[in-house]
């Protein structure tokens, strides 16, 4: 048997392959290697192109881009082509004796077209692909090809996609269209057979029913005739009662009109009295308003006067405080002056005392000298000797004497300097003490000023906060007043629009009080029906009021027993009768749901446009509204009423025009709109409560807004505090400036004082040095004197001359010392006197005296202004009190006038109420008359609609039917015109009541109602009996014959349908078997092979690969699940496997599919990208082991993979320069046979 293998591939101008390149012959296991971008994947694309692949899978947008150089706009040729050479190898035993044959497949692409060749002969694409498919190369199945980066997608296919892959490979897809057609044909045939059977069964049932109906029709006709007679009698009876009621009401209405005319004159007289009372009340009110205006003006004047009064008072208080401060400062200045004068006096007295003491000392010295009678006088001889010796000593010690005199002068000068410096230091010290005292006083003043500033600023902050509060309060009050006034105006306008009559509201309030009592006594009472529900939009109010009618004011209770207890209580309390709706007693017809689907956007069920609370009252709402349709216009309502030709619907328009099932067309009455306003009672009550609340708020805000005077007072106080703080801050700044000046002077004085001490020390050292020198020189002089006076001293008997001179010298020194003390004391006192005389205390006292005089003058003026303003305020207050007394008197007068006016209004109102009550009664009579006319018209129209023939003497009922004459115009008119129109259109119809018996015509009161009820019950019984019989088919005989003929035809149709169904089922089962066999053969083969292949690829017996069909009977209709158990791991979904595990699973599946299809080659593009070296070696070893079963061409960059190959196809890049010097890449192919290499190596 000959087996095809891929032998050679010829590429010409394809992608990166320039010119004609022959690649081959191929070994069983070929590896394509080369650097990235060299064209390895283009080699795979070339094979795919030759096998019929589309451009999208070849990584180009258009097939013309496959031509070498086309992607850069420089195609080297007009076409590109790829040729595949398939060699047929015979696998039988005698295959060696046969010459191998080849099949050549070539595909050529140009810029505008492509061609297909087989064995150099041109063929069509369909035949080309069919021949490749015969070789096992189905490009759609891809069972022999894995593109670069697509290896994992094979394992991750959707089960349905995997099923499609199996259908392509197995060939079962060829049966798919025929399978679907035959299946549809089979289902159609079976359905036709079933329909024919159902048709037969239906006709058989109709035949039996027609036989039963034929006997019931006769009984039905007799009952219809009896029902017609009873209906005619009932309508005649209603018309007769209607005529009697009209006559009676018209007579009563005429009497009421006469009575009302008489009361109108009484009302006019009362209105005249009321007019006079109102006029008097108005005059008094105006006078009161004038007085109140005067009071307000006077209050305004008081506020205006109070403002400068408070300002003057505050200014006076401020000036008083300033005066006290000035007086305190003056007192301090006087104390300083007194102290200064006392100091001067003391110093003068002290100086005088010192001089007196000095004079006394001098006198005592003189007296002592006189008393002694000598001055240590020497005798004449001694004196001569002494003088002579003294001259000799002086001559000998002249230079020394001169030195002593010089030193003495210097010593004395230094002593004077020391004394001066000492006085200067003492003066500086005194000045420092005085400046320190002055600084302390300034600092104390600054502290007091700071405290006062702090306290004033604190008070100012409080005043500012108060001012801000007043301002914000005033501003918010103004804003709130404006908003409340606007809201109050809106609510007033809304209340005036509501214009509900006061007496009606009061009556309803009384009724609601009754309901409140019932709620307190009996737990099962809910409320009146109108308070338990409301329309979703006010436009439905009139319609809802018309339909609910008397039930609007009905009281809803839970049980019948509760209603009976309530009725008993009303009777005991002698209260008005009430209507009750017990929820467990009333019978409610189910809501007709289909009505919601008709009529469009302008028609709704009345029940749907009503909201209610609590949910328990739903039954009562449904009872009152029923299945009534509400429409926007009367025309829409009439159209909906006659929507069903067999059965009239109940419909109502928004203006109250009511189309009932009985045929009555009822327009709105005069008070219908007024009654509809009951739905607004809750809102009106809320608005009235809100109006009261807003009025109270407005009054409160108006009172708050009158705090402007207080705000002005606060403003004045703020200004006063601000000015005081400013003045005190200025004074504080001056004091601080004075302290700074004092500090500067103190610094200078301290610096001067510190400079005095070193100078004193220096002078003292100089004086001590001079004293030492003087002593030394004196000793020398003394030695000379001792030598000179030695004989003289011996002569006079003294040890030395100094002893002789000691007495006189001692006295002299004592006198000099005493005189020096007196001089020092006098100098010290004189210095102090000079300093004290420089201190100026008079100017400070004068300044404070002037300041006190100015402040006393200003304070006097301020007190005078305060007194003047206070007198003005007192005067205005007295005038205001007089005006307030006048206002009280006038208000009493106005109250009296108001009471008189109210009494007159009550009289007019009482008469008006009486007239209004009578007018209401007249209106009720007119309404009743209108209702009777409308009821008469409704009865006549009902008779016409229902086909009831009345004994009419004159007139035609057909003129009353809507749509005739001008009735369509009257349907949209007001209630009054409808009533008049009803009377006009029915008055011309005269009916003969002779057919009613005389006994019936004599009935009155309750007997009339009982007779009407009896007639209705008889009609209801007949109608129920007829309804129970259902609608009768009067053509039942024809129906019976027609049904028999149809039954015969159906029998033959059933037989034909059964034959056709059996034929379709057989054909479908045949094609189904063929498709199942083809698919299962492939699936079973692959299922068996894939597990073996997976174990070989993983080199593990514990590994497992499973394919499972979701639909076992017809697997091609469901998906195919694929799962793998990797070695040493649990079973996981395919998505949870690692990249390498997914790659192994994909390779196993592709190889299994390849073995079934027996394709000539297996092409793999870099499938080892996600594999480690171990798995690469396993995969390569597998291909090497199985190379006798299939040929493999694999692109790989892993040495562990391509080292197992039989031959290598090396692909590299060669850059060719064009005419412009640009380099174009070209793929260059090398073929290397590894088997020859292995033989040489061995």
Automatic annotation (TrEMBL):
Single GO biological process annotation from the record: sister chromatid cohesion
Organism per entry: Thrips palmi
Chain intervals for the UniProt region annotation (Disordered): 961-981
Protein name: Structural maintenance of chromosomes protein
InterPro entries for the chain: P-loop_NTPase, RecF/RecN/SMC_N, SMC, SMC_hinge, SMC_hinge_sf
GO CC aspect terms: cohesin complex; nucleus
Cytoplasm listed as a keyword: no
Pfam families associated with the record: SMC_hinge (PF06470), SMC_N (PF02463)
């Amino acid at each position: 048997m000959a087996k095809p293998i891929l032998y050679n591939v010829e590429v010409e101008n394809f992608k990166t392959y320039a010119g004609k390149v022959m690649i081959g012959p191929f070994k069983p296991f070929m590896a394509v290697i080369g650097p990235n971008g060299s064209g390895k994947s283009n080699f795979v694309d070339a094979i795919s192109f030759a096998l019929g692949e589309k451009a999208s899978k070849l990584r180009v947008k258009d097939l013309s881009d496959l031509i070498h150089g086309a992607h850069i706009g420089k195609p080297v040729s007009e076409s590109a082509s790829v040729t595949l050479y398939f060699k047929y190898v015979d696998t039988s035993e005698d295959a060696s004796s046969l010459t191998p044959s080849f099949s050549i497949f070539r595909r050529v692409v140009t810029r505008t077209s492509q061609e297909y060749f087989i064995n150099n002969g041109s063929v069509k694409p369909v035949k080309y692909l069919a021949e490749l498919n015969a070789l096992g190369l189905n490009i759609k199945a891809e069972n022999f090809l894995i593109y670069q980066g697509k290896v994992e997608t094979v394992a991750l296919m959707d089960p349905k996609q995997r099923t499609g892959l199996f259908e392509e490979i197995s060939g079962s897809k060829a049966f798919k269209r025929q399978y679907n057609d035959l299946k549809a044909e089979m289902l159609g045939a079976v359905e036709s057979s079933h329909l024919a059977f159902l048709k037969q069964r239906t006709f058989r049932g109709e035949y039996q029913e027609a036989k039963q109906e034929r006997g019931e029709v006769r009984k039905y006709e007799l009952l219809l005739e009896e029902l017609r007679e009873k209906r005619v009698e009932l309508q005649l009876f209603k018309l007769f009662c209607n005529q009697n009621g009209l006559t009676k009401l018209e007579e009563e209405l005429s009497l009421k009109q006469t009575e009302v005319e008489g009361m109108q004159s009484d009302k006019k007289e009362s209105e005249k009295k009321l007019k006079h009372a109102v006029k008097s009340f108005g005059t008094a009110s105006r006078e009161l308003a004038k007085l109140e205006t005067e009071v307000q003006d006077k209050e305004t004047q008081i506020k205006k006067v109070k403002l400068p009064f408070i300002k003057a008072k505050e200014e006076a208080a401020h000036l008083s405080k300033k005066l006290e401060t000035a007086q305190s400062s003056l007192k301090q200045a006087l104390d300083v002056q007194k102290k200064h004068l006392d100091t001067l006096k003391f110093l003068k007295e002290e100086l005088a005392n010192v001089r007196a003491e000095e004079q006394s000392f001098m006198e005592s010295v003189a007296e002592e000298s006189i008393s002694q009678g000598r001055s240590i006088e020497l005798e004449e001889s001694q004196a001569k000797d002494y003088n002579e010796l003294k001259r000799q000593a002086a001559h000998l010690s002249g230079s020394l004497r001169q030195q002593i005199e010089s030193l003495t002068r210097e010593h004395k000068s230094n002593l004077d300097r020391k004394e001066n410096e000492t006085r200067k230091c003492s003066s500086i010290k005194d000045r420092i003490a005085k400046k320190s005292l002055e600084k302390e006083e300034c600092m104390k003043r600054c502290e007091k000023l700071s405290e006062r500033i702090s306290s004033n600023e604190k008070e100012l902050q409080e005043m500012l906060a108060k001012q801000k509060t007043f301002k914000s309060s005033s501003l918010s009050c103004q804003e709130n007043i404006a908003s409340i006034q606007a809201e109050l105006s809106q609510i007033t306008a809304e209340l005036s629009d509501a214009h509900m009559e006061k007496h009606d509201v009061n009556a309803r309030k009384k009724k609601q009080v009754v309901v409140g009592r019932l709620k307190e006594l009996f737990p099962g009472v809910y409320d009146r029906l109108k308070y338990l529900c409301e329309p979703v939009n006010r436009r439905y109010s009139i319609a809802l009021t018309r339909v609910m009618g008397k039930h609007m004011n009905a009281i809803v209770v839970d049980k019948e027993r509760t209603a009976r207890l309530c009725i008993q209580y009303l009777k005991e309390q002698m209260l008005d009768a009430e209507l009750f709706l017990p929820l467990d007693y009333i019978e409610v017809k189910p809501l007709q749901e289909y009505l919601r689907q008709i009529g469009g956007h302008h028609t709704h069920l009345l029940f749907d446009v009503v909201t209610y609370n609590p949910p328990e009252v739903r039954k009562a709402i449904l009872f009152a509204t029923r299945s009534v349709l509400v429409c926007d216009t009367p025309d829409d309502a009439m159209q909906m009423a006659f929507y069903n030709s067999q059965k009239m619907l109940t419909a109502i328009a928004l203006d109250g025009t009511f189309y009932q099932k009985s045929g009555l067309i009822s327009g709105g009455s005069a008070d219908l709109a007024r009654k509809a306003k009951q739905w607004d009672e809750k809102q009106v009550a809320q608005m009235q409560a809100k109006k009261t609340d807003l009025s109270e708020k407005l009054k409160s805000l108006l009172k708050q807004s009158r705090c402007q005077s207080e705000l002005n007072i606060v403003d004045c106080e703020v200004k006063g505090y601000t000015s005081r703080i400013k003045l005190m801050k200025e004074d504080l700044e001056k004091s601080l400036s004075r302290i700074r000046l004092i500090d500067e002077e103190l610094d200078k004085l301290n610096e001067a004082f510190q400079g005095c001490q070193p100078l004193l020390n220096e002078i003292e050292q100089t004086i001590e040095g001079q004293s030492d020198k003087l002593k030394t020189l004196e000793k020398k002089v003394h030695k000379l004197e001792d030598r000179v006076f030695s004989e003289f001293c011996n002569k006079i008997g003294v040890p030395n001359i100094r002893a002789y001179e000691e007495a006189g010298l001692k006295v002299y020194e004592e006198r000099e010392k005493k005189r020096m003390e007196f001089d020092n004391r006098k100098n010290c006192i004189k210095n102090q006197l000079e300093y004290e005389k420089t201190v100026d205390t008079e100017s400070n006292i004068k300044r404070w005296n002037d300041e006190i005089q100015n402040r006393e003058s200003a304070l006097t003026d301020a007190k005078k202004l305060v007194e003047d303003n206070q007198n003005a305020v007192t005067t205005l207050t007295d005038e205001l009190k007089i005006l307030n007394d006048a206002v009280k008197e006038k208000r009493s007068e106005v109250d009296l006038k108001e009471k008189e006016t109210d009494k007159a209004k009550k009289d007019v109102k009482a008469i008006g109420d009486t007239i209004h009550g009578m007018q209401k009664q007249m209106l009720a009579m007119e309404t009743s008359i209108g209702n009777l006319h409308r009821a008469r018209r409704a009865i006549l129209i009902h008779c016409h609609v229902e086909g009831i023939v009345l004994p009419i003497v004159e007139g035609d009922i057909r003129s009353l039917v809507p749509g005739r004459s001008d009735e369509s115009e009257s349907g949209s008119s007001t209630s009054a015109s409808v009533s008049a129109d009803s009377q006009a259109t029915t008055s011309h119809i005269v009916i003969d009541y002779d057919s009613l018996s005389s006994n019936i015509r004599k009935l009155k009161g309750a007997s009339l109602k009982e007779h009407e009820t009896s007639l209705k019950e008889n009609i209801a019984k007949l109608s129920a009996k007829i309804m129970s019989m259902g609608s009768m088919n009067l053509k039942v005989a024809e129906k019976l014959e027609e049904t028999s003929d149809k039954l015969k035809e159906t029998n033959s149709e059933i037989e034909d349908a059964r034959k056709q169904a059996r034929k379709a089922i057989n054909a479908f089962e045949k094609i189904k078997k063929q498709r199942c066999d083809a698919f299962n053969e492939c699936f079973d083969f692959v299922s068996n092979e894939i597990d073996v292949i997976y174990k070989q690829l993983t080199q593990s017996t514990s590994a497992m690969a499973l394919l499972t069909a979701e639909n076992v009977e017809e697997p091609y209709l469901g998906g195919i699940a694929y799962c793998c158990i990797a070695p040493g791991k649990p079973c996981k979904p395919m998505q949870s496997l690692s990249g390498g595990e997914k790659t192994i699973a994909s390779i196993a599946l592709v190889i299994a599919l390849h073995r079934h299809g027996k394709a000539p080659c297996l092409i793999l593009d870099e499938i080892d990208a996600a594999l480690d070296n171990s798995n690469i070696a396993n995969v390569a070893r597998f291909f090497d082991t199985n190379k006798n079963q299939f040929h493999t061409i694999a692109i790989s960059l892993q040495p562990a993979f391509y080292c197992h190959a039989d031959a290598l196809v090396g692909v590299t890049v060669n850059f060719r320069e064009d005419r412009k010097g640009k380099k174009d890449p070209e793929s260059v192919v090398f073929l290397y046979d590894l088997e020859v290499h292995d033989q040489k190596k061995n």
